[in-house]
Write a structure and sequence with these properties.
Residues 1-20 form the signal peptide. The chain contains 4 helices and 22 strands. By secondary structure, the chain is mostly beta strands. The protein folds into 2 domains: 2-89, Sandwich (Immunoglobulin-like); 97-277, Glucose Permease (Domain IIA) (Distorted Sandwich). The protein binds zinc ion (ZN). Zinc ion binds at residues 152, 168, 170, 172, 250.
Length: 278
Amino acid sequence: MMRHVLCALLLAGVSASGLAAAPDLHGRWMQGGLIRGQTEPGAQVWFNGKPLRVSPAGDFAFGLAYEEGPAAELRVRLPDGSEQRHEYAVERREYDEQRISGLPQKMVTPPEAALKQIALDNQRVAAARARDSAHADFAGGFDWPLSATVSGVFGSRRILNGEPRQPHFGIDLAAPKGTAIKAPAGGVVSLARDDLYYTGGTIILDHGQGVSTTYLHLSRLNVKPGQRVEGGQTIGLVGATGRATGPHLCWRANWFDTRLDPSLIVDGKPVSKGERRP
Ligand SMILES: [Zn+2]
């Protein structure tokens, strides 16, 4: 009962006396957001009941899903055994609806012969996203991978030739073929392949603790799996490989299999179509 009262106080933004301060958090409590936190070294942290990895320096991270909320819970147990529980309101989003008609049927339904490759691609991508690495490159924040006009936003509900599909979980950045793509933060290359069925030249960077970013349709890959990259390093070039209608970078971000909005991670606010970033 007491626990419940404390929780309600915290949700209202009132700090109760005798409680340790909430951990230091960066990021927006919005669907698709990434929260980066810092607590005392040696503390344990749970997000919605899931234990998180905490770096030796006290860094941790977690993502807010596409349809997260309306509230989320963070629990911290400090090395002295004291426990804090905080509840946060998650901002709800209105996602665009994108109707595309008149697409060649092969772009909407893959041919039988491609199904095996698609299944293998999905396995490889899932394995890269599942990595729970000890490094904490996410802790320093993220930059845009290139300068471009936004041509597609996170979360658009897609209706292709009249059939509802998985929402678009990337940000499309319209840039000419051959534009350099820079790592938005340090990390380790967890996938680099030039032959994925839908996404063509594809790179996934592991920024630690399940935080990853993905780069699709590249015309060239400059990195290899297992390679360490620093923020600002060119990892590949923009292209239109795979099933793309023209040259652009489809940029994605994940916390494990939770889809995140890259613009929230960089800017703290969602971008709009036609906007130039950065
Ligand atoms: Zn895209």
